[in-house]
Amino acid sequence: MEPILIVHGGAGDIKDSRVPDKIKGVKIAAKAGYKILKNGGTALDAVETAVRILEDDESMNAGRGSVLNLDGEVEMDASIMDGSTLAAGAVTIVRDIAHPISLARLVMERTPHVLLAGPGANKFAEEQGIPRLLPGSLITPFAKEALKEFKKKGGSLTEIGGKDNPGDVGTVGAVALDSQGHLAAATSTGGINGKMVGRSSDTSLIGSGTYADDEIGGVSTTGHGDSIIKVCMAYAILKNIENGSDPQKATQSVLDKMSAKLNNTAGAITISKTGEIGVGFSSKRMSWAYQKADTIYFGIEQEEVQSEKVIDE
Ligand code: ASP
Predict the structure, then answer these.
(1) Which candidate in 92, 171, 221, 251 is catalytic?
(2) Which end of the chain is more exposed for a tag (fewer CB within 10 A), N or C?
(3) What's the pTM value of the predicted model, to 2 decimals?
């Protein structure tokens, strides 16, 4: 089977000044994840690696660079799913660790549960030997500035909406199909700028932010999480595919339906079990990239598809 891996770097009203870094970031992560697949690695390892790279990238809203809640703190969510077994793991409202996606994977592999929250998630991280960072070390000057701007406009109450809170976006996600025909998906986020303390996102919810099933496909979503949750977006896209829709239409139709009904925007990346791609967003922009054979495809604007040959170092 020809392996394939796609990543996104978040959907939203991305500022022009942030565009080059977002594109650079998704290309690096897509190539690194694909390399694992090309060397016979699993879809699960590939999506975890790609998302870890994006969590380390300060221009993304995940890991270091995460947006801030109303109290100026980073609270992160992540989820991962193995399409071959439907095993899944997730964390929400986790603090001060570099790679929430790896903690989500440990929840999947080493606990009987799917989702661990807050102090319990951090306690599990400590038990698993994941280093606890000094409080505040994931906070970037850009994130501080975005919260300041949000508070200036919106007062102290969370009033999240695309146009009123461009803040920052850049939730990250990856979906992969490996040479054995197995699918996996992973998503990680700092949430939405100016969110209430203790708010959980779609990214922590299997079926909304992340889903993978070898018999259908894999999906990772991004955008207005409180809307994404209401349409169970990742699962809804896969249901469309199961009912005969191609991945592109399956993805776009759920996004369009959500935006029409709830007046908010989102994006998603999809791979079907046969390796067909869907990339859609109802927001102004979403950075994405995928590698297939020796070509990387990428874009950030509506209708934009660029491609480049990848020279192996
Ligand atoms: N879906 C994320 C959330 O609602 C944000 C994003 O994707 O940009 O927290």
Answers:
(1) 171
(2) C
(3) 0.96
